[in-house]
Write a structure and sequence with these properties.
Beta Polymerase, domain 2; NADH dehydrogenase (ubiquinone) activity; alpha+beta; single chain; NADH-quinone oxidoreductase; translocase; 5 strands; EC 7.1.1.-; five-stranded mixed β-sheet
């Protein structure tokens, strides 16, 4: 700037000096500090995520879970049912981890009668004690579950038999295990599953003229207050 120009600037009022030139806003130290801290936090999170992703990718895959010690028991039950009853007798089979690794076999309804005889009479299986029978409404189908024990070996197993909800019917286990009698009557009463072959199948809790089966998912009581 020439000396003449400088003299002109000095002669101008303070508010007029530098008019027409860009003005720099004042710096807010507190705001700048917050912006810097936020940027550093974002960078730290991004770095931590990148590190975690890299470690996860480099980590060795978990070792496969060892098979259940009761897997051989399950496989033997399935083998005998397929060999001595029918190749089609078993619909599914698995070890139920949530129930103490219980060997669980889904037997096809059509083969349940001879399967029940085999499970009790076979010398190796010898499930002579029927601990409990229960029924379940899955809305898509009904299911009867038989929990049995071999008193000699202390082995246990659960056998499931599925049936359609309409005209639900499963061969009675009462002629094989007498203890199934009252359990099947209760299931018949509360879920409406018929048990052909039961010696005395009638309601056990509700009156004979009661309408419907209270444990069915679609049950609607005649009196909403009950």
């Amino acid at each position: 700037m020439s000396e003449e120009k400088k003299e002109e600037e000095k002669a101008l009022p303070d508010g007029a000096r530098g008019a027409g030139e860009a003005q720099t806003p004042p710096v807010d130290p507190e705001r700048e500090a917050k912006l810097k801290a936020a940027a550093e936090a974002r960078a730290a999170r991004a770095a931590a995520k990148e590190k975690a992703d890299k470690e996860a990718a480099e980590a060795a895959p978990p070792e496969p879970k060892p098979p259940s010690p009761k897997q051989p028991e399950l496989e033997r039950i399935v083998e005998l049912l397929k060999r001595d009853v029918s190749e089609e007798a078993v619909e599914d089979a698995y070890v139920n981890e949530l129930n103490g690794d219980m060997p669980t076999v889904v037997v096809r309804n059509a083969h349940w009668r001879p399967a029940a005889e085999l499970l009790k009479r076979h010398e190796e299986l010898s499930f002579r004690y029927l601990r409990n029978v229960s029924g379940v409404d899955y809305e898509t189908h009904m299911e009867v579950v038989y929990h049995m024990v071999s008193l000699g070996t202390k082995r246990e197993a659960a056998i499931k038999v599925k049936t359609e909800r309409e005209g639900a019917s499963v061969y009675s286990a009462t002629p094989v295990w007498a203890t199934a009698g009252w359990n099947e009557r209760e299931i018949f009463d509360l879920l409406g599953i018929d048990f052909p072959g039961h010696p005395d199948l009638r309601r056990i809790m509700m009156p004979d003229d009661w309408v419907g089966h209270p444990l069915r998912k679609d049950y609607e009581p005649l009196d909403s207050e009950v």
